[in-house]
Structure formats: structure tokens, C-alpha cells
């Protein structure tokens, strides 16, 4: 990459990911994904639209139950949230619909879990491919052969990089500072 004429250079920092059992890799910290990483992820996941799958099930329920598509979408989303997180309550009509459409809702839950797993694999492959020297040919099939622990750790790092999760190391430091201030 060509060196940009920054007025203020970005910080150069690395983070060790993994542990002694699964191995430790050192990743550059960029506090974001690069354009290449995001393009790789988008390209590999373009066929797995969770929104389209939720909408497909919602439209089926909408037609069958004779309710508005937006109401069916809200119901499906509520069911999936309950299935994934165990949170939510249902009135009697919704409980009846959950039973009536149990197969579709279970299949949707399985699709969403598979899509989330694929996102983890693809994101991990992108970070290894574009951030680690000599790994330019690393692909999603290579990531599938990795240790689950290492894959999860790299994916968690990607969430921190994109601001979707907080860094436990920084959280701990902030908690100590807060505790000392009180």
C-alpha cells in the first residue's frame, strides 16, 4: 500500500489473539476493517441474506394468517429473538401462531445460526488473509479447519475492531479507574 501523507500518523499497535493451546497470532489493530477485508466479507456472504430469509417466512405467514407483512415480520423477528436469546413473551394468538408455524420458525433459526457461523468463518479468513504477512492465499476453507477457540477469538477481535463489542482489556482498565475514583 502506498504511504499516505497523514498529518497525524495512525497509531501502530498489535494484539495477540489465541492462547498457548491453540497458538497465538499477532494482528495489527486498525480500529476498523479495511476496504479489502469488507469487500471479501461482502463477496463471500452475498448469497446468505438473513433479511431475505426472514422476509420470505414473514410473507408466507402473512398470506396464511391474513395479517399485514410488517406484522408478520415483527412476529417472526420476535420468535427468532426468543429462540436465540430466550427473551420475549407471547400472547395467546402469538403462541398459537408459533405452534402453527413451528417448522418454518425452526428452519429459520437453523438458517440464522448457520449464517452467523458462516459470518464468523468468512470474517476470520478475511482478517488472516489481509492482516498477516504471507497469508494472502488463506481462504474460508482454510478457516474451517482452524480450532474453534482461535476462530472465535479472531472473530471477537473483529467485533472490537468494528466497534460492535468492547475490548475486555480496556473495560477492565476503565473499571479499575472508576473504582479508584470512588
Number of strands: 2
User: Averaging pLDDT over every residue, what do you get?
Assistant: 90
- Total DSSP helices: 8
Count of the separate structural domains: 2
Helical content class: 55-70%
Give the uncertain stretches in residue-range form. none
Sheet of most strands = 2 strands, antiparallel
Please tell me how large the radius of gyration is. Answer: 21 Å
H/E element string? Answer: EEHHHHHHHH
Shape: elongated
Give a short synopsis of this structure.
The chain is mainly alpha-helical and 182 residues long. 64% of the residues lie in helices and 8% in strands. Strand 1 and strand 2 form a beta hairpin.
What would your notes on this structure say?
The structure is a single chain. The chain has 182 residues and is mainly alpha-helical. The chain folds into two domains: 14-45 and 116-181, no CATH class; 50-112. Helix content is 64%, strand content 8%. It contains eight helices and two strands; from the N terminus they run E-E-H-H-H-H-H-H-H-H. It starts with 12 loop residues before the first strand and ends with a helix.
Which properties best describe this structure?
182 residues; mainly alpha; elongated; 64% helix; 8 helices; 8% strand; 2 domains; two-stranded antiparallel ribbon
Helices and strands, with pairings:
Layout: E1 13-19, E2 23-29, H1 35-45, H2 50-65, H3 69-85, H4 92-100, H5 102-131, H6 140-144, H7 148-161, H8 168-181
Antiparallel strand pairs: 1-2
Helix pairs in contact: 1-5, 2-3, 2-5, 3-5, 5-7
Amino acid at each position: 500500500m502506498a504511504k499516505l501523507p497523514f498529518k497525524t500518523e495512525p497509531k501502530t499497535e498489535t494484539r495477540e489473539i489465541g492462547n498457548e493451546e491453540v497458538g497465538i497470532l499477532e494482528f495489527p489493530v486498525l480500529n476498523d476493517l479495511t476496504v479489502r477485508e469488507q469487500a471479501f466479507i461482502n463477496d463471500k456472504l452475498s448469497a446468505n441474506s438473513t433479511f431475505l430469509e426472514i422476509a420470505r417466512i414473514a410473507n408466507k405467514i402473512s398470506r396464511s394468517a391474513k395479517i399485514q407483512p410488517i406484522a408478520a415480520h415483527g412476529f417472526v423477528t420476535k420468535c427468532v429473538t426468543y429462540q436465540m436469546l430466550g427473551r420475549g413473551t407471547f400472547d395467546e394468538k402469538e403462541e398459537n401462531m408459533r405452534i402453527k408455524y413451528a417448522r418454518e420458525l425452526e428452519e429459520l433459526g437453523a438458517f440464522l445460526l448457520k449464517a452467523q457461523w458462516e459470518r464468523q468463518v468468512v470474517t476470520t479468513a478475511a482478517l488472516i488473509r489481509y492482516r498477516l504477512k504471507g497469508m494472502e492465499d488463506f481462504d474460508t476453507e482454510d478457516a474451517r479447519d482452524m480450532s474453534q477457540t482461535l476462530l472465535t477469538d479472531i472473530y471477537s477481535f473483529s467485533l472490537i475492531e468494528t466497534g460492535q463489542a468492547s475490548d475486555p482489556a480496556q473495560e477492565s482498565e476503565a473499571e479499575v479507574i472508576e473504582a479508584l475514583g470512588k
